Structure formats: structure tokens, C-alpha cells
Amino acid sequence: MTGVEILLIAAFGGVLLTWFLGRVSSSAGSASAVLILLALTVLVALMYGGMSETVFYNGFFGISMSLRVNALSWFFAMATAVLACLSAVFSLDYMKGRRNTGFYYTMLLLVNAAMLGVVFSGDLLSFFIFWEIMSWSTFLLISYNRGPAVAAGMKYIVMSLIGSMAMLTGIISMFISFGTVNIAELSGMIPAASHGYQLFLLIIIGAAFGIKNAVMPLHTWLPDAYTEAPSPFTAVLSGMLTRMGVFGFLLIIYVMVGAGRVLQPAGSAVPAFNQVLAVLGAVTIVIPTFIAMLQNDAKRLLAWHGIGQGGYMVLGFAFGTSMGVAGGIFHTLNHAIYIVLLFMSVGAIQYRTGGVRDLNSLGGLIKKMPVAFIGALLGICGLIGVPLTNGFVSKWMIYKTLITGGAPFLAFAALIGSWGTILSVYKFLHNMFLGQLPSKYENIRQAPFSMKLPILVLSSAILLFGILPGLPLKVIDGIVVSFGFQSMDVSIWGIASETGMLNTVNLFAAIAAGTLVVLVLFRIFGKSVPVGQDDNYAAGAAVPRDRYSYTARFYDPLFRMISPYLKDVFSTLYDWLAGVTESFCGSVRKIYTGHISGYVMYIVLFISAMIFVQIVWSPW
Amino acid sequence: MVNPVLLIAVPLGLAFAIPLIDRIPGRLTRFVPVAATLFNLILCIRLVPAVANGPVIVEIGGFAPPFGINLYAGHLGLLFAGLISLAGLVVSIYSISYIRTGPRARYHMLYILLLVGATGVVLTGDLFNLFVFFEILCISSYALVAYHGDRSGLESSIKYLIQGSVGSSMLLVGIGLMYGMFGTLNMADIARSMAGMNDGAVFVPMILMVAGLGVEAAIFPLNGWLPDAHSSAPSSISAVLSGIAIEVGLYAVARIVFTVLGVSDIFLFLAFLGVLTLLIGEMCAFAQSNIKRMLAYSSIGQIGLILFALSLASGISVTGGLFQIVNHTLSKGLLFLSAGYLIYRSGSMEISSLHGMGRRMPLTSLAFTVGAFSLIGLPPFAGFPGKFLIVTGALGEGRTVISVLVGIVLLCTVIESAYFFRVVGALYFKGGKGEEGRQSAPSAAAAAMIILIVLILALGVYPKIAKTFLRFAASDLLDGVRYVGSVLG
Fold it and tell me: Nearest Cβ partner of A599 from B204, B225, B385?
């Protein structure tokens, strides 16, 4: 038995164990969930650098189902396991006292186990099976909060199943054409197939990943799902689960169809797929980021950024140079870190304020919840891509690819996205932590330790990967090389490239020295006057508390200016389609009138019509 | 070697012994169906090795096949007989606690008769004998639909009776025409005579027989009775009607079209009819707010899917269709059984009244969820291998028209998932805050549901166990020459 088999047995066995313990006592269930996820993280970490492929199961009609370990799967598995573990720790206090926590932890572990299965699958059949388990267990978790969450879950599962059905068609079509579903064998065969067939596969399977990764115009499930799911699970959902779409795209584009085929135009339509994908990525960056600015719900704001950031990843890997692909993958990791951090900060505030996430009614919590503030600050810095945070490095790589690759418009779109991001996340940070403190939150307490721990771990990860990006980039370089691109010149402190190198350690030194100088000068010459927290916008004049809220209707003129242009037409379109389907089904139902004479008429008419057709046209 | 005729004779004897057993105090009658179906199940398992060496032919009364009636226990017949006894066993265990009021002795007697009729249909090798068993099946189900004796039950029973009788008359006319043309009613003998004939000549009797059987098989547009009958019958009977009766009807259609007549020209038409049935069934189910009617329409949809798979007439797709039959029997059985207690506890069939049942009846809700997921075709439940095989077989044809039909089939899966997930969401995530009134199902019902859950999971995780047998069953259905050879020697 190989390591990866033990890993998956532990993952799925842990689900059963947690379910059983959760029935006995809810604290035993949560403790076992955390311990199992910790053990899984260690197991995945131990598999570092491994390369193997093992057949683990022949029971499905004799199709050999296999698991394989390589750089790509290890990278995604590691991120999945760590984030799930942190999310479970965060859940300890967040979910305490809620009903049915055993169910919650069981499903959290099941989602995690299925994600590990997805990334370690060595063939498309097990990929699909794990993928579907992941989808339905996600539905159960999204709907966990009841109320509007049920509708959000429905939206998610229906879109997800449409994607799965497309993917199933593609997989079975490959199974028929090539007689195998093994990824390694297929990657030897698909490049020899006709261009048209390759394009068909890319589109039909890409549709599933496009839905999962919420690429416009397939994004409409995401805002509701992220908003309504329990916050620790939103973290998992936004961090890794949605990004299984990126994993899938990498698998189908670069592992199976092959980088050379996809990118070199040999009179085929296949390269066009990547160009279209890149443009869709750019659209996905711009529009959702600006829609995010209009949101007044903290989680919904982040959810729209989740869509927008997915656009950067797509733009990166669809551009298909080694730096672009590496940037896309690195951005996936970085985004996972900071978006999980941001959702956890929101979660901590929700926990202490009793579920409030309305940006119009919060404010001034910086002194009350400093750890959540640090998490949110570093999170938005990563999201914007401020130097010395991880988001900077991956965005730098993507920009660099776009500019040197001669795609100024796409680069411009990515830049516009960053501006929108800055505006909207400033609103996010300001309206929660800065400004006045509403008096009802006067006695609010710090987040509990189980929430502070993951927030601090992720905050330091943002800085660590921002200052020493070489740590993950070494692994990513291995992935890129395995796709058939040339290796990047990666060192522990940065990346060299033909147009100049990025040395984050020098950057760090410069910024640290600059900060130090300013700090020293201030200490020596500065005179500071401490002011109260409410004192910051009336030039010292007394303002009655709770009468004016600095945070309400933030960006109101901007809002009025841009909101007419930012209607989510696709969401409206899909809702309309669902409504039409529903009413159409309602009218189809009227076939069954309930009148026996009608039913007998159907029988007689059926027979007469058949005989009539045979006699008149005699098709035989 | 065990004689397949016992599969029919012993339960029939037990059924008629029930009025006598009812005289004994102690409510023994409710265990008689359990005994009968258990006996049949064991017999079927013991027949498996015998059938592996070729079909078992039983000559009734000692007359050789073209002259006498014969039973034909091949892989296919045995598969169905085994499935009938398995589903029958589970449902009869469930009925021990579920059937509490009304004329219980008659319920158990009719229930066994229904199963005997179904077993007879799948085992017989004679057309008229098939008609007779079919009538046994139908008449006992007419009576059982009206078991509660309430207005809606009686009304739908009468509707079912009228349509069933129209169907039976058509079937009888068709059989009569066949007898006139061939001078024999033995299925193998007709198949042998068909070999040299123009297919068009048998068109009229064939369409009469297909339409007649199609009423029971719930093929659109012959299935008007089904939503009423399945929703107003007791849930245990709905489970058997959905899980066994309509499948047996479909078996008869397939046996006549494939093996007896072997008319390949009608296959594409049947495939279209199957997809139409599927589409209409799923759309109607989507528009339902009554849970039993929703399940009934979903049965129509599943029948359409199975008909589509069978009429592709390739080894893989027919295997997939048979797998789907097994899955539908288990999953729809599970759905009706769990819905039975959900309705019993909530007092209403409206989905909106089932809110919060996930807390009040955890096991029953879990059973419903497993059945729903399996029917949608989500892994790791039994529905996925079936759907996988059907799509593989259909796309493997490589014909554009079939590929378009596959697209519609997959679209229907999405519609199906929408209404099933709506109910699952209602069970777990809506309404009912407190733990108020936690009432589990009685142990007999719980045992029945657990058996089905385990079987669905086992088939979903390890479909290989069923696959070998199903492939032989598929060739049993498709290979008319072998059928003739083994009966007539």
C-alpha cells in the first residue's frame, strides 16, 4: 500500500470516525475532525517530491482506477489539507453551540477527502467520482445555514451538475475513442487526435471547470453560495474548492492536450481556445471587481472578489508561457491564503457581533479586535498586491507575462481590476475596523484563540511568501517544467527574467530601512497629539455618537455613477431561464389531465397513429 | 437441481393458504410474504450456478416446447425473478409494521399474488401464459391500489383498472393475431418462424402487443394511470408497483420486440419514445409539490431512460439498462418506503409539510437522501454505474441522432437533480427548529431501509459483482437465435 492510498483511506475513514464520534458528543466530533485534518496535512507533507502511480481499484467494470502523485497534485493537496485544517480550527469556536455540528464536521471532512481524491486521481473516472462527491457534499454544507442558504445551495448544485454532465460526456467520449481513462495514457494519445476533437474536449470539459472556477459568464452561483455558507466553510469553498476548476483546467489543457499543442498554432483552432479563455479571464477580472465595490455585505463583497481573482488565475495560465502558468498557479495559492484569511476575519466579527456582516452598520472595531484587523489588513494587502505580500509576486508575474507577451489590453484589464480592488477593499477594511465605533459594540471582546491562531498563521504566510516567494515557486517551477515549459530562474528570494529580476528580499530591506528612518525621525522630531476614536472627521468638533455613521453609503456618488452599468445580466438571464423552465414544466404537467377518458384516448390514438403511419407511408 | 417452477408454485400455494393461516391467532399472516419471498430469493441464488451452464427449460406437464407451455429461466429471467423476490422481501419486512389497518390478510394474499404474477411473466416462454400472469399481476395491483378504501384510492384504482383493461385487450388482440399468423403461441417457435419473414407483416400485432404491455410499462403516452395509482396506493405498494410492476411490463415489451420478433427497425423509434417518456416524466416531476406524485412521475422518467438504454440494443447499453433497472428497483423502493413514514409522521404528502424531518426522523431522511442521490446517478451510489454504462453505450454508437438523445438524457438528469435536491434541502435545511417530536420509524421498517441502503452503496462502490451477470442477461435478451436453440433444441 502506497502513501497516497493510506492518505485517502485515512481521509475517508476519518469521515466515518468523525460522524460516529459526532453522534456520541459534539466536542469529540470536532476534536477528531481537527486531529484527522492535522494528520492528513502531515501525511501530505511527507509525500513531498514523490512521483508514483498506483492502481487502487478494479471494481468499477474492470476499469483500472489509479492514484498518482506528482508535483501538481502534491501542490494542490498540500494547500487543500492545510487550509481545511485551519478552517476546522477556526470552526471550533465558531460552530460551538450550533446545532448538528457533527454533521458539519463530517461534511467538512468529506469535502476535504473528495478534494484530495480529485487532485490525486490518476484517471478521469476516479476524478469524476471524487468530483461528484465533492459537489454534493458541498451542497449540504452551503445549505447548512438554512433560510436563503437553501436557495444558494440549489443554485450551486444545479450549475455544478450541468458542468458535471458536460464533463461526463467528455470523459466517456474519450473512453470510447481511446479505450482508456488513464490520464498518463491519454496525454500520450490526445495530442495525436484531430484538432477538432481536441477543441471539443477542451470546450466540453472546460465548461465544468469554468463553472467551478466561476469564470464569467458561468459565475452566478458563487456570490450567493459564498455569502450564505457558514464562514469557516466559505473559507474552504473560496480557498480551494472553487480552485479545483483551476486544477482541472491545468489538467485538461497542459497535462492532457499538451502545452505544445495548445499554444503553437499549427493551422488549428485549439490555440484559439486559450485566447478566448484569456479574454474571458480578463472580463472576469474587471466586471466582478467593480460589482464588488457596490456590495454592502462583507461576505458578498469578498465573494465578488473571489470571482475577480479567479480571472487573474485564468488570465495567467491561459496565456501559456512558463511565467504566466507559474503566475496563475502561484496566484491560486496566494489567493487561497488571503481570501481564507479575509473570510476568517469577517467570521470572527460575525461571531462577536452576532452574525452582523453589513458594512453600513459596523465600524471602529480596530481596538476591540486587533487580530482580526491585522488579518483583514494583510489580507487586503495581498488581495491588492501590495509589495512584500504574496499577491504582489504572483500579480507581478502575470503582468510581466502579459506585457512581454504583447497583450497590452489584457494587461490593462488586469490593472483596472487592481484599481477596483483597491477601492472596494478599502471600503471593506474601513467600514469594519476604522471610523466610529457604534456604541452597541462598546463591550465587544477579542476573537477567541481558536480564531486568532489561523488568522495569525495565514497573516504570517502572506508575508513569508511575499518576502521569500522562492519557497512555493520552487515547487511551481517543477509543475511548469512537467508541463513541458522551460524552467524559470527561481531563487529563494525572487525570480529572474529577461526584462529584469524581482528580488523581494532587497525590496524588503529597502522598505524596512525606509520605514526605520521615518520612524526614527518621528521619534526625534515628531509631536503627537492623541485623539479619540470618534474625533477623526469633524476637525475636533464634538459629534454626537451614533447620529452620523461615517461608514453608511460609502462611495455613494461613485455608486450612483457606475451601478447602472454593472447589472449582472447573466444572473438575470439564468433566473429567467429557470422561471421559464418551471412554468413550461407546469404546462407539460397538464398532459396528465386526470380524466380517464382522455387517458384511454391517448392509448387508442397512439395505436391508431402507429397503424396509420404504417399503412400510409409504410416506413418498412 | 432445483426446479424453477417452484418459484411460482410455492408462493402461489402460500397465497391461497393465507385465509387458513389467518384463522390461527397471533397475526401470523404478516410473516407469510416474508417467508414466500425469502424462499424465492434463496431459490434464485441456488439457480445461479445451474443457469451459468445454459438456460433451464421446464416443460410443464411433460409436453415438449412447441406443443406445451414451457418456463425459460435464463440469466435475464433469473435476474428479474431474483430482483422481484429481493424487493418483495424488503417490502414485506417493511409491511410487517407499516400495514396496521384494513383487511390485512387480503393485503398479504394480494401482495404475494402480485409477486407471483410478476415472476411468472419473466419466466414464461409462452405468449398466452404471459398474458395470464400479466393479468394476475394487474388485477392484484388494481385491488391493492384501493387498499386504503378512501375516495382517492378507489378513484385511481378504477382509472387504473379501465386503462389496464384497455391495455390487456389490446395485448390479447395482438396475441390472437399472432396465433392466427403463426399457429403457435410458444415464444421460441414464433421467433424461429420470424427468421424468414418480412418484418412489416407482424407490424399490427406487434404494435398492439407493445401498446398493451406499454400501458403497464408506463411508456408515454400510455401511462396516464401511473401518477394517480402510485400516489394513492399505500407506500409499500407504491414501492412494488414502481420498483417491480412497471419494470416487468418493460421486460415483456423488450422480450417480445427483441427476442421473439427481433424487429430492429423499431429500435430507433423506441429510443425516441424512451427519451420522450424520460423528458415528460422528469418535467412533470419537477412541477410537483406532492412528494408521492413527484416520485411517481420520476418513475415514468426512469422507465423512459431504461427504455432508451434497452432500445439501443448494444451489449453495453442493454447492460446499462438492466443495471438501471436494478438501481431503480432498489432506489425507488427506498424512496417510497422512506416517504411512506415521512408522510405517516407529518400527516401530509406536500413537500412543504416535510420541512425539518431530517431532525425528527434521521434514518428515514437519510434513506430518502441515499435513494434520491442514487436515482440522480451521483457516485458512489448505484445509479452512477448504470448511467455511466448507458451513456457509454449510447455515445459508442457514434450516431449523431443518438448523441443528441444522450444530450437530452443528461439534461433530464439535471432536472431530476433539481427536484430531488429541493426535497433533500427541505428535509434537512428548512423549518422545524427544536428537536420536537423525534420519532424514528419502527424497527422492521428501519431494517428494510437499511438493507436497501447497504445494497445501493455496495452496487455503487463495487458494480463489478453485478456486471458479469448483467452482461449475460443482456445477451440473453438480444440473442434470439440462442433463445430458439435452447428451447427447441
Answer: B225
Judge whether A616 is closer than 8 Å to chain B, CB to CB: no
C-alpha to C-alpha distances, A384 to A246, A335, A421, A600, nearest whole angstrom? 20, 10, 6, 68
Cβ proximity of B153 and B232 under 8 Å: yes
Residues of B whose CB is below 8 A from A140: 428
B208-263 pLDDT, tens digit each: 999 999 998 889 888 888 988 988 888 999 999 998 999 999 999 999 988 888 88
Q: How many beta-carbon pairs below 8 A join chains A and B?
A: 161
Residues B101/B103/B108/B109 CA torsion (nearest 10 deg): -170
DSSP letters for A385-453: T-TTSHHHHHHHHHHHHHHHTT-HHHHHHHHHHHHHHHHHHHHHHHHHHSSPPPGGGTT--PPPHHHHH
Q: How much is the average pLDDT of B182-188?
A: 87
3-state SS class at A59 = coil
Nearby residues of A168 by Cβ (< 8 Å), 6 or more positions away: A128, B388, B391, B410
pLDDT exceeds 70 at position A259: no
The pLDDT tens digits of the residues spanning B87-98 come to: 999 999 998 888
- What pLDDT is attached to residue B101? 80
Average pLDDT, chain A: 85
pTM (two decimals): 0.92
Distance from CA of A149 to the nearest CA of B (A): 8
pLDDT in tens, A199-227: 888 889 989 999 998 888 888 889 888 88
Displacement of CA A417 from its chain's centroid (Å): 17
Exposure string of A584-596, with b = 16+ CB inside 10 Å and e = fewer, is ebeebbeebeeeb
* CA quadruple B241, B243, B248, B251: dihedral sign: positive
Beta strand pairing call for A65-69 and A502-503: unpaired
pLDDT for position A128: 92
Please state, in angstroms and rounded to a whole number, the distance separating the CA atoms of residues B195 and A432. Answer: 82
Mean pLDDT in residue range A365-378: 88
Of A146, A176, A596, the CB nearest to B392: A176
Output the average pLDDT for chain B.
88
Question: Which residues have a Cβ under 8 Å from the Cβ of A575 and sit 6 or more positions away?
Answer: none
Residue A490 predicted with pLDDT over 70: yes
Residue type, B358: G
DSSP A355: S
Over residues A431-451, mean pLDDT: 82
Greatest Cα-to-Cα distance within chain A, rounded to the nearest angstrom:
107
Cα B89 from chain centroid? Answer: 14
Residue A100, classified by CB atoms within 10 Å of its CB into exposed (0-12), middle (13-18) or buried (19+), is: middle
Helix or strand or coil: residue A97?
coil
- To the nearest whole Å, the CA of B111 is away from the closest chain A CA by 26
Q: Which residue has the cell 465548461?
A: A207
DSSP secondary-structure letter at B31? G
**Cβ separation B385–A143 shorter than 8 A:** no
Residue B406, pLDDT score: 92
Q: Which DSSP state fits A64?
A: P
Q: Quick check: A433 contacting B, CB < 8 Å? A: no
A179–B contact, CB cutoff 8 A:
no
- For residue A496, the cross-strand partners are A489
**What does the pLDDT look like over B435-483, one tens digit per residue?**
566 777 788 888 999 999 999 999 888 888 888 888 888 888 888 888 8
Interface of A with B in 511-570 (CB under 8 A): none
A32 in Cβ contact with A137 (< 8 Å): no
Which of B359, B417, B426 lies nearest to residue A157, judging by beta carbons? Answer: B417
Residues of B in contact with A594 (CB under 8 A): 228
Using DSSP, state whether A56 is helix, strand or coil.
strand
CA distances from B183 to A125, B177, B179, B317, B486 (A): 52, 10, 5, 34, 21
